[in-house]
């Protein structure tokens, strides 16, 4: 199961252009076109795993593979399934059975997808040449919430995003709109 989840993670990341070799412009366009099908296939594979074995916890598959499952869940377009799993995943994180930092990304993605304020400040959108953060529930308590979820302070996270995506992270705050 661990190997299967790690292979799924590699597929997910390659589909997003995070493979070892840099993608050409034409292959980037091809990746974008294939991404929905890749995400759908990985979602179905993860649904089958969860149905047969339950959520992949750290004790079951190790932290890397458990986080790989969360990455697939974060990228799913099946928002109803994602939302349905959140109470169980919150309990698992509270019991130290899964990584709370991975869950925080899924929580924020679900909130933003519903047009709500995010909790941990993990979701950004490309706006006017930079990455702008979607609004958060408690701006003054953001770093405290991030620390509880084992996430770095927001300024450190913005710098990480800048390094990963080679785009500046602005101080702009944008509103989320519900997605179907």
Radius of gyration: 16 Å
- N-to-C span: 32 Å
Computed structural class = mainly alpha
**Count of runs of 4 or more consecutive helical residues:** 8
How is the main sheet built?
A: 3 strands, mixed
Q: Strand sequence of the main sheet, in spatial order?
A: 1-2-3
Q: What is the N-to-C succession of helices and strands? A: HHHHHHEEHHE
The stretches of 5 or more residues where confidence is low (pLDDT under 50) are none
Q: Summarize the amount of helix as a percent range.
A: 55-70%
Structure overview:
With 180 residues, this protein is mostly helical. It contains 8 helices and 3 strands. A 3-stranded mixed sheet has the order 1-2-3. A hairpin with a 2-residue loop joins strand 1 and strand 2. Helix 1 crosses helix 4 and helix 2 packs across helix 4.
Element layout with pairings:
Elements: H1 2-15, H2 25-53, H3 58-61, H4 63-75, H5 79-94, H6 100-113, E1 124-127, E2 130-134, H7 142-148, H8 154-165, E3 169-174
Parallel strand pairs: 2-3
Antiparallel strand pairs: 1-2
């Amino acid at each position: 199961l661990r190997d299967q989840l790690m292979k799924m993670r590699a597929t997910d990341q390659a589909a997003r252009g995070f493979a070892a070799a840099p993608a050409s412009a034409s292959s980037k366009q091809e990746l974008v076109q294939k991404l929905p099908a890749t995400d759908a296939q990985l979602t179905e594979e993860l649904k089958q795993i969860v149905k047969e074995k339950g959520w992949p916890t750290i004790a079951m598959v190790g932290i890397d593979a458990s986080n790989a499952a969360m990455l697939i869940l974060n990228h799913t377009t099946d928002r109803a399934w994602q939302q349905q799993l959140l109470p169980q995943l919150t309990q698992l994180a509270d019991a130290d059975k899964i990584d709370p930092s991975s869950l925080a990304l899924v929580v924020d993605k679900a909130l933003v997808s519903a047009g709500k304020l995010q909790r941990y400040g993990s979701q950004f959108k490309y706006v006017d040449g930079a990455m702008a953060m979607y609004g958060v529930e408690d701006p003054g308590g953001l770093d405290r919430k991030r620390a509880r979820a084992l996430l770095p302070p927001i300024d450190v996270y913005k710098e990480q995003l800048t390094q990963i995506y080679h785009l500046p992270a602005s101080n702009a705050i944008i509103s989320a709109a519900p997605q179907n």
